[in-house]
């Protein structure tokens, strides 16, 4: 999918308003430079008020209004929230939690993903919508469903149980293969018949981790099947119209975005950083790198963000002047070809009435709307950015199946994978290194440095790929609790981490996790540092010891037992190098270690010597490069530019050799040679 410009707009819900407001909407959208809106997402109950009775007349007028205004429609399939009549006629479509609680209508997403009845009604509606609007001049893009897995991440009802058993039979073929994979000899869980298998409902104590892992895989597949059923109808009726569905958050645990991205024409993301969090832009950056990487660097769409405050946190902070602009340009810098918001006009009723909008309750004269207009003008003037791409020399590995397995019960310590990712990503971000976030199945040959935060679940194929990568000259950084179990959550025998022992040049005899809030002393380069979360009893088998655990005023009660033992190692393997971290080093040491690993790998920052809190990213075109500079700090800074460049957000008549960025300032610099 190729956009003609950086698209700009929001989620448009005209059904919430009388028709006399629609004309004002078109006028205000035109004045604000809106070029694309998501429309129809929650329109099912309006277009099908009773089963099989369709009323599209009002929606025809909406689509015609958009076409006349020259605004494109990202047209939803309208299936995100079933109308009340569906659950009244078919209560069996309602989802259940693990404890048997049924979830009722009154909010949204109240359907079991495995329900054939839900899918029948949903696909029937999709066929109606696609047939009616297939050749409408406003149609630009199909928006399937909405935020899949946001509220119903898994369903445990009898319908889902039957679907789970079907999925398991396809995966394993026979019951004995499943018994082996699930280690069912433990706790007398061996199954003699498929009908004995249930979803991992609420049980007396820890569930079977392999069963829970497979249920997470199944639940993702069941939700994806709903998407695919609708997507396939759209491709049959409108093969010329691209298809997307919006992911949520920097990474949404129930939905394997890498698998889903392969089934879309363009990836889109809803992003809601918290203005109260000083590091929110770093977490957002990780998510943007991930969603861009999901389709191998293809530009993506920021489908939703908030113009100011959201409504669903315990404390909802507004975006102060300039922050909405800064964060919008950050998404563009990291590969977005669209900047859209939720929503166009702020609702006066319903659960999201205090969620900010492009047109707030106060109307067009509000600060928020005026900032929206200014951003629309800037984006319209930077059309040449569309289709350009970001390149990265560093990859951070992320895997959804590992995420599901790592955060299950009965482990040496409770680990938060996204927190761990950010601990490793943040120093790379601060160093000005551009990263991709890729699955272990990705081709790693093009990356100089690969960082593996906590890849607890590791197949033999993944281990072989990492081994080949390092042997061929790659540089690898691996953190603790990696390479521990196979794809069935069964421990790799032979000493931890068995699949990577030769690459890392070490053997871990025992995990020594730290108590909550405790630290351990580290000795590195003649200086004392601290580590948190984890420690290990580690023996080197060829690796160089870079840092050791040390005795001292650490709060780890067993710290003295580890004194002098390896904490950070470096091992040459083939033509490459593999690092290992047996603890979580404090941020300054993590930065120092990753800086050294990056330098040895030949990875250079986008701009050397960047001021603190300034992000630099380059998007590459066929014969031009675009350097984005974004000041996330509270002080004005001046950044030298290596070669004279044109600032697309400034005076285009005069090339610049340096840029002064106020707090929340942005510059987009064009050079005539692609980097």
Q: Look at the structure and name the CATH superfamily of the largest domain.
A: Glycosidases
Rg calculated over all Cα atoms: 26 Å
Low-confidence stretches: none
For the residues shown, what is the average pLDDT? 96
End-to-end span in angstroms? Answer: 24 Å
Outline: globular
Give the CATH architecture of the largest domain.
Alpha-Beta Barrel
Work out the strand percent.
15-25%
CATH topology of the largest domain: TIM Barrel
Instruction: Walk across the major sheet and give the strand order.
Output: 12-11-13-14-21-20-19-16-17-22
CATH class of the largest domain: Alpha Beta
How many alpha or pi helices? 18
Number of spatially distinct domains: 3
Question: What is the assembly state of the chains in this entry?
Answer: single chain
Count the beta strands: 27
Major beta-sheet overview: 10 strands, mixed
Helix content: 25-40%
Q: Helix- and strand-based class?
A: alpha/beta
């Amino acid at each position: 999918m190729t956009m003609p410009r950086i698209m700009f707009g929001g989620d448009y819900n005209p059904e919430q308003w009388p028709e006399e407001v629609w004309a004002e909407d078109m006028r205000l959208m035109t004045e604000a430079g809106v070029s694309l809106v998501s429309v129809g997402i929650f329109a099912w109950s309006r277009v099908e008020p009773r089963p099989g009775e369709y009323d599209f007349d009002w929606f025809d007028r909406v689509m015609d209004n958009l076409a006349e205004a020259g605004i494109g429609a990202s047209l939803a399939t309208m299936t995100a929230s079933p109308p009340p009549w569906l659950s009244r006629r078919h209560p069996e479509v309602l989802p259940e939690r693990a404890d048997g609680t049924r979830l009722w209508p009154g909010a949204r997403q109240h359907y079991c993903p495995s329900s054939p009845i839900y899918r029948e009604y949903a696909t029937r509606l999709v066929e109606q919508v696609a047939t009616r609007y297939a050749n409408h001049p406003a149609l630009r893009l199909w928006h399937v469903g909405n935020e899949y897995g946001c509220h119903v991440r898994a369903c445990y009802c009898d319908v889902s149980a039957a679907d789970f058993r079907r999925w398991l039979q396809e995966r394993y073929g026979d019951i004995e293969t499943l018994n082996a994979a699930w280690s069912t000899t433990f706790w007398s869980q061996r199954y003699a018949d498929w009908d004995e298998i249930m979803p991992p409902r609420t049980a007396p104590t820890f569930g079977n981790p392999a069963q829970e892992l497979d249920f997470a895989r199944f639940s993702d597949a069941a939700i994806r099947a709903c998407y695919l059923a609708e997507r396939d109808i759209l491709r049959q009726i409108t093969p010329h119209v691209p298809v997307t569905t919006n992911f949520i958050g920097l990474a949404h645990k129930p939905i394997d975005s890498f698998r889903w991205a392969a089934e879309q024409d363009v990836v889109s993301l809803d992003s809601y950083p918290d203005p109260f969090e000083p590091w929110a832009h770093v977490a957002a950056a990780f998510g943007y790198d991930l969603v861009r990487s999901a389709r191998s660097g293809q530009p993506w769409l920021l489908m939703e963000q908030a113009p100011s405050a959201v409504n669903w946190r315990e404390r909802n902070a507004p975006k102060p002047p300039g922050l909405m602009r800064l964060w919008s340009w950050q998404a563009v810098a990291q590969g977005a070809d669209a900047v859209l918001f939720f929503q166009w006009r702020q609702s006066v009723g319903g659960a999201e009435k205090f969620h900010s909008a492009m047109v707030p309750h106060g109307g067009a004269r509000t600060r928020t709307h005026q900032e929206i207009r200014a951003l629309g003008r800037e984006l319209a003037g930077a059309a040449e950015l569309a289709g350009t791409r970001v390149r990265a020399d560093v990859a951070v590995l992320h895997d959804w199946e590992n995420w599901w397995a790592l955060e299950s019960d009965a482990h040496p310590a409770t680990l938060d994978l996204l927190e761990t990712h950010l601990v490793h990503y943040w120093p790379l971000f601060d160093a000005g290194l551009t990263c991709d976030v890729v699955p272990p199945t990705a081709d790693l040959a093009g990356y100089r440095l690969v960082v593996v935060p906590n890849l607890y679940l590791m197949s033999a194929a993944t281990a072989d790929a990492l081994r080949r990568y390092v042997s061929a000259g790659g540089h690898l950084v691996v953190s603790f609790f990696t390479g521990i179990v196979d794809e069935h959550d069964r421990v790799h025998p032979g000493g931890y981490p068995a699949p990577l022992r030769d690459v890392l040049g070490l053997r871990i005899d025992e995990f020594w996790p730290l108590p909550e809030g405790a630290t351990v002393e580290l000795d590195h380069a003649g200086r004392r540092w601290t580590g948190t979360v984890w420690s290990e009893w580690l023996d080197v088998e060829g690796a160089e010891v870079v840092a050791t655990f040390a005795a001292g005023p650490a709060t780890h009660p067993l710290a003295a037992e580890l004194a002098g033992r390896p904490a950070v190692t470096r091992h040459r393997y083939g033509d490459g190098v593999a690092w290992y971290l047996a603890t979580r080093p404090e941020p300054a040491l993590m930065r120092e270690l990753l800086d050294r690993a990056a330098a040895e790998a030949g990875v250079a920052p986008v701009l050397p010597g960047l001021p603190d809190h300034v992000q630099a990213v380059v998007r590459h075109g066929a014969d031009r490069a675009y350097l984005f500079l974004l000041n996330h700090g509270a002080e004005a800074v001046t950044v030298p530019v290596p070669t004279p460049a044109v600032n697309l957000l400034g005076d285009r008549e005069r090339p610049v050799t340096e840029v002064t960025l106020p707090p929340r300032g942005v510059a987009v610099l064009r050079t005539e040679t692609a980097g």
